[in-house]
Amino acid sequence: MQENQQHDSVDVFVGVDVGKGRYHTVALDRTGKHLYNKALPNDEAILRALITELKTHEQLLFVVDQPATIGALPVAVARDEGVPVAYLPGLAMRRIAALHAGEAKTDARDAAIIAEAARSMPHTLRSLRVADFWTRASRLIGMRMALAQSRCRTLRSFRRSSSFAGRGPRRWAQRQFQPGLPDQSEHRQH
Asked: Domain extents for the chain?
């Protein structure tokens, strides 16, 4: 419910197709009218100037196609300017792009699709709140730690039980848990 209320308060939807050297930006108002359509260099001052210019139209929603790595600068600048930020996942982007005319993949076309998706299909967007990121990151770290602990428990248990059975099972376990070790049993002479 809160997401719909937030979407209803947005006046300008800014779609940004992120690139290494430059970003293509398209801004649409609620009716779908293009307010801005231009490629920008990867520069913080220019991004701030764009956001300031578009803020004259009231509430903005800044949507990127890559929230991390090369998309980190526009996300950080928009957040610093107090603009809510979201991203359009790659799979949703490809499916929406398939619905639009034309097959060519251009930065301008992608930015327009991102802005249009933000305007007309808010359910396709993912929020980029800092709290959401830390929640997901801590969950992944916890899962990784649990897997590592489980593996260690399994190896310790197997080593304890195989120490009573002789060296044969231990060699078998080493080959199972460390692929790439040569199989010594084939080279023995009987």
From this structure: 2-128, 133-179
* CB within 8 Å of 59: residues ≥ 6 apart: 9, 10, 11, 12
Give the tens place of pLDDT for each residue, 31-63: 888 888 988 888 889 989 988 888 888 888 888
pLDDT digits (tens, 9 = 90+) for 118-161: 888 878 777 766 545 555 666 677 778 888 888 888 888 877 77
- Do residues 40 and 93 make contact, with C-beta atoms less than 8 angstroms apart? no
The dotted CATH code for 2-128 is 3.30.420.10
Q: Tell me which residue has tokens 């310790």.
A: 156
Scored b (16 or more CB within 10 A) or e, 38-51 reads eebeeeeeebeebb
Residue type, 170: R
Residues 23, 74 contacting (CB under 8 angstroms): yes
